[in-house]
Amino acid sequence: MSDITEILIRAERLHQLEKAEIVALLANRVDDAELFGVADRIRQRYVGDEVHLRGLIEFSNICKQNCLYCGLRRDNQDIKRYRLEPEAVIELAAKAKSYGYKTVVLQSGEDVYYTVERLQTVIYGIKDLGLALTLSLGEKTREEYRAYREAGADRYLLRIETTDRQVYDQLHPGMSLANRLRCLRDLRDLGYEVGTGIMVGLPGQSQESLAEDILFFKAIDADMIGLGPFIPNPATPLRAAAGGTFELALKVMAITRLLLPDSNIPATTAMETLNKQGRTIALQSGANVVMPNVTEGEYRQLYMLYPGKICINDTPAHCRQCIGGKIAAINRTIAQHAGFRSGKNLGQL
Ligand code: SAH
Ligand code: SF4
Question: What molecular function does GO assign, one term (predicted)?
Fold first, then answer.
């Protein structure tokens, strides 16, 4: 039996791995089908064949931060900025509901126009629709997180991006890993379902640091883990970077499933950007969530985190139908409930 097989057998039984074992899986070049198969089996056993759809609303591309990799960074002059008013966001959420989504995810740059008060308006409006609500608005104070939670937000998605301090500092001028961690701790304390994740293939990121990232997800027992390849954006300082590969991102995702058997793990848009079948393959390698875009019109194109983003000319209705077809084609079903982790039901739903 190969070392890889032995590691996988133990991981499937115990959902534990040492750092060196994770590095061995990442470095391995021959038996990846075995890793993906084990991750798929664990996904099936713990979270079943249901796929949770989360309707993604990208409501502002205005950002005060300057993350080196991101097209929304404040120094990027090469992008037309937009923001939707609270009423327009609620309207999109109502449409998402009409397409059958049970959860909407509100995502934006760190846009200071969106004060607590404006966000409360949006949150109340969306909760009145009876939807589960995930926020992904970046770093805020504990008081802000508390106010959103009290207004009814259920989940918060904040990728750690990398746990490697050196890499983190290089990519995030004026930000700190310590504050990112503080945010995640506050979110957990406040009773959110907490989502995090990373980009795979960042400049300076090693297999060791990816292994640390995976162990970090386990250590904080993340309820959701979103990961995708880093895709260099020509409008950013990292335009000439090598970028991540679909294959490595998929492996990091599959290993994450080994360690967190009942977490929600999305098949991400960035994966499909690098591989036409990316989300389908991810759903068969450990993922159980998809986040179709419900943003409308030109805003889809303007929310340009990275180039080549898929579906920028499609309508929300088309995306819903398209993803439904992909899920049916692999004999999976679309969940008809809000899809909290392990069926946990938070409060009002
Ligand atoms: N401002 C919020 C949410 C928007 S950014 C925040 O930063 O949390 C959402 C995610 O897009 C980021 O967490 C990052 O992981 C991803 N992203 C940004 N630029 C990217 C790029 N060039 N390639 C791949 N993913 C990218
Ligand atoms: Fe802003 Fe988020 Fe992009 Fe950083 S990753 S520049 S915080 S939108």
Answer: transferase activity
* Cα–Cα distance measured from residue 148 to residue 144, given in angstroms and rounded to the nearest whole number: 6
pLDDT tens string for the chain (349 positions)?
A: 889 999 999 999 999 999 999 999 999 988 799 999 999 999 999 999 999 999 999 999 999 999 999 999 999 999 999 999 999 999 999 999 999 999 999 999 999 999 999 999 999 999 999 999 999 999 999 999 999 999 999 999 999 999 999 999 999 999 999 999 999 999 999 999 999 999 999 999 999 999 999 999 999 999 999 999 999 999 999 999 999 999 999 999 999 999 999 999 999 999 999 999 999 999 999 999 999 999 999 999 999 999 999 999 999 999 999 999 999 999 999 999 999 996 554 433 3
pTM of the model: 0.96
The best mutation among 65, 110, 159, 274 to test binding of ligand 1, ranked by most ligand atoms within 8 Å of the C-beta, falls on 159
How many angstroms separate the Cα of 68 from the Cα of each of 152, 194, 199, 203, 233? 33, 25, 13, 11, 9
CATH topology of domain 37-334: TIM Barrel (3.20.20)
Cα–Cα distance, 305 to 259 (Å, whole number) = 29
Residue 67 in contact with ligand 2 by CB distance below 6 A: yes
Residue 13 Ramachandran class (φ > 0 left, ψ -120 to 50 alpha, else beta): alpha
Establish whether residue 238 lines the binding site of ligand 2, counting it when its CB lies within 6 angstroms of any ligand atom. no
Determine whether the shortest distance from the Cβ of 193 to ligand 1 is under 6 A. Answer: no
